[in-house]
Amino acid sequence: MQDEYRTVARPGVHETEVNRSRFLCALAPAATEQEAQAVIARIRKEHADATHNCFAYVIGADAAIQKASDDGEPGGTAGVPMLQMLLRRDMRYVVAVVTRYYGGVKLGAGGLIRAYGGSVGEALDALGTITRRRFRLATVTVDHQRAGKVQNDLRATGREVRDVRYGEAVTIEIGLPDADVDAFRGWLADATAGTAGLELGGEAYGDA
């Protein structure tokens, strides 16, 4: 698994103009290929009158799924430069659709590559990106007396408390970078006089 990846902070649209052609780059997070396709279908419907609706998407922390379409532009001048821009910026779980309204001036192959790739790069800059890091899910089990202090200490040290459940004991689910597990185990033993339990679970990604 990748240690971290970047994705778009929020869905949005950024517009640029090149030689009177309008380029609208829509970016959206997409957890699956189906979600990416749904975004593309929605934008194609919204901009059915556009000259082209080209797209690129990257799904998977390891970029396992990559697709791009030139949608009628000369081969390799739209979708591929869009995809290359996403990959160059380490973007994952993201879909980009660039809608072009032709302005009457031909851009040539080089101009199109710069316009489509640049449109995605500018949109990423405008909308912002977030980094997600790999971590291990861990469950802390602690008695009711100590639970409040442990939760406060966890938050004070920047640990992400993902879930808290109250039963006979209190279980607190957190995320830990693999490298921190041993140090955390020692900290937890000190903080609870050795009374807390720690169980490690699977791996996931969270905001860095």
Annotate the secondary structure layout.
Elements: E1 4-8, E2 12-18, E3 21-29, H1 33-46, E4 52-59, E5 65-69, H2 79-88, E6 94-101, H3 108-127, E7 129-142, H4 144-156, E8 160-166, E9 170-176, H5 181-191, E10 197-207
Antiparallel strand pairs: 1-7, 2-3, 3-6, 4-5, 4-6, 7-9, 7-10, 8-9
Helix pairs in contact: 2-3
Question: What is the number of helical segments per DSSP (H or I, 4+ residues)?
Answer: 5
The share of residues in extended strands comes to: 35-45%
Summarize the main sheet: 5 strands, antiparallel
Mean pLDDT: 91
In short:
The protein has 208 residues and is an alpha+beta fold. The chain is 33% helix and 39% strand.
Outline the structure in words.
The strands form two sheets. Strands 1, 7, 8, 9 and 10 form a five-stranded antiparallel β-sheet that branches. A five-stranded antiparallel β-sheet has the order 2-3-6-4-5, with helices on both faces. It is α+β, with helices and mostly antiparallel strands and 208 residues long. The protein is 33% helix and 39% strand. The chain starts with a strand and ends with a strand. The chain has five helices and ten strands. A hairpin with a 5-residue loop joins strand 4 (52-59) and strand 5 (65-69).
